Amino acid sequence: MHMLQKTQVRSAVFVKSSPDVSGCPEGNLPEFAFIGRSNVGKSSLINMLTGRKGLARISSTPGKTRLINHFLINDAWFLADLPGYGYARVSKKSRSMFPGLIREYVMTRQNLMCLFVLVDSRLEPQKNDLDFINWLGENRVPFAIVLTKTDKINHRVRHQNRRLLEEKLSLAWEALPAIIESSTVKKTGKEEILSFINHLVRPTENT
Ligand code: GTP
Ligand code: MG
């Protein structure tokens, strides 16, 4: 049993928006990034985690976040809000299913500790989410899954969708990744995500 150290966000500051990885802030601190299909709730989740309502911009129009936005938390680690995938239509023939910016970021950002892949809890597993997750696996990128908007559906459908997702993942994975359920309306999932981050930022203090 560890002593669960409550993870507090004491400060959260917008650092910059970057159109490419070379424009990102110097990668001298651990970084956690949020990714997922457009409109899945990435920016809302960042605001909930930091307790700052207007920190990341939220919009009901998909594709609001087109740049990589960095936030510095507690002067100790970065959060990155990434553009959504699955918004700009990609031709079926195209082999790269995800925007170049996302691929470049995921493959080259050295200080990336964990990518949180947001998946809409209301939907049965979607091909582009599964493709993206499996692509992460092939490239050995550490990630966890966050099921979003759980306030919008009932228990039964939520559990059913989660089970279907786990079944699909089991086809490709020996061990399932961490899966965290969240709602920015009910304010759930916050502690779990922050403590997940905390264990990676300060591994020795939590053993
Ligand atoms: P892009 O930047 O366009 O890729 O979107 P995003 O993934 O950052 O989504 P965003 O946080 O902007 O949220 C999209 C919409 O979903 C907004 O209308 C939010 O208010 C809504 N939303 C996000 N999270 C939740 C949630 O947990 N529950 C409910 N009910 N609505 C949510
Ligand atoms: Mg956004």
Q: Can you lay out the helices and strands and say which pair or pack?
A:
Blueprint: E1 12-18, E2 31-36, H1 42-50, E3 68-73, E4 77-81, H2 100-108, E5 112-120, H3 127-138, E6 143-148, H4 155-172, E7 179-181, H5 190-201
Parallel strand pairs: 2-4, 2-5, 5-6, 6-7
Antiparallel strand pairs: 1-3, 3-4
Q: How would you portray this structure in words?
A:
The chain has 207 residues and is α/β, with parallel strands linked by helices. It has one domain (2-204): Rossmann fold (3-Layer(aba) Sandwich), CATH 3.40.50.300. It is 29% helix and 20% strand. It is built from five helices and seven strands. The protein has a seven-stranded mixed β-sheet, with helices on both faces. Helix 3 (127-138) links the parallel strand 5 (112-120) and strand 6.
